[in-house]
# Entry
Amino acid sequence: MLPLIECVPNFSEGRDAAVIKQITDQVETVESVRLLDVDPGKATNRTVVTFVGPPDEVCEAAFRAAKKAAEVIDMRRHKGEHPRFGAMDVCPLVPVAGITMEEVVEYARKLGRRLGEELGMTVYLYEYAATKPERRNLATVRAGEYEGLADKLTKPEWKPDFGPAKFNEKSGATAVGARDFLVAYNVNLNTTSTRRANAIAYDIREKGRIKTVDGTPGGKPVLDEAGNKVWEPGTLKCCKAIGWYIEEFGVAQISINLTNLSVTPIHVAFDECCRRAESRGVRVTGSEIVGMVPLSAMLEAGRYFLRKQQRSTGVSDRELIKIAVKSMGLNDLYEFKPEEKIIEYAIADRSTKRLVDLGVEGFVELTASEAPAPGGGSVSALVGALGAALATMVANLSSHKRGWDDRWEEFSDWADKGKQHWARLMHLVDEDTAAFNALMAAFGLPQGSDAEKAQRKQAIQSATKQAIEAPLAVMREALASLEVIRAMAEQGMEASVSDAGVAAACARTAVIGAHLNVRINAKGLVDKGAAEDYLRQARQIEDQTVREEREILEIVSGKL
# Structure
């Protein structure tokens, strides 16, 4: 897997579209880097930009964007609700795939050095890239903001990591870091009171608030034995939060940074804000995600809110996302577009059209055409997916059946298992055709010289194995789906028992059809021992599938 990193620089300009575009245009000048999101905020006067790509290219894009920001942003005229101390205020690098945090730290430090040495920028390193423990927290690095930067730079302990220890009135300073995936998340309130928003923020954030003797804000602080103020932690770990007023929308918000979603997920932060707001006579009206969010966070949020309703979670990703958006009011201020806001969807390669995106009619028409693919392998995978989907449907219907309320979780678990099977088989619809195309490409390789002939022969054998393993994977997955199908035939609501029977027939068809593909492609293997091993596995899977399908249909027939 090629290494990918994400860069999420924040620029101190959120109102002038022309200025913002000059900066983001620089990102798009770097080949292999994809600009995913540009999220300006008028009240904060700040724009969060997100782009992704190979590490060297991403760092180059960040460098060019920083250079342009220093040219077109004047911090002497900047006002906004968000803490800031520079034109490119922060520039975090985040590992996405195929790269460790340690490697990303090195890239962050190289980028910081370039900014300091080549552009003369004042640069501090933070989070995992920090060179001193006290500089790890961004809030500490940025304390005093732009207005306090001149004084800060006179102190030896705040000598920058790179660049001059001299106040640049126009550009300020920049914090470059390496961090885990952070979600910037704002919760909307039905109040205009920044004080109340801050009170809720202090309730939830990990840092909490200063503890007072009488328990009231602004009261006499409690001191420890050393005379230091005692802090009373908030309710959420890995959560930073402040309150502010957004004039653009006329509401106060709790502005949250979630620094570890495995510790505090978005949905937990939302519900905690709701609880704390209600206790203070305030209501949460919705929320917004600033920048990008991982798919897993949205899916888990959808499952969380379905579980609260005692509803089955074994539904499609699209439905889970819809539930999450509705439950957290992510459309409150503007439309939440999954294809733009969810990072996996935004970076997906849309240049290659998938068979599963064609729709039923389009898939059937293409199958019926003169094109050699999709063929029997892809059709077998699709039939298997339909069988697993039918079993999932029975589980979902059973979990919501009147009178079976105490069994909703049991059937929800079956629906989740069924979803895993049909999702995998849907993936194999395209994987089988990809294997066929790879085999055709191998046969088309040149064979003039001896070296070319040898290379072509090796490519054909490699592609042939791929063309065997894809339908074999279909067979295994369709067989595995029979566990859910049998359970639904035995335990699911009787009104849908015929659907379980059809599901079993689909699984059997998928296995037999895919077996035919294994057999025809195994003939092309030079290694006859490997070919026989593939065929032996396929025979065993088909024999077991036929037996299980027969047993399931007997169960179904007994209930009809």
Notes: The first helix runs from residue 17 to 27. The two ends are 51 Å apart (CA to CA). The chain has a mean pLDDT of 94.
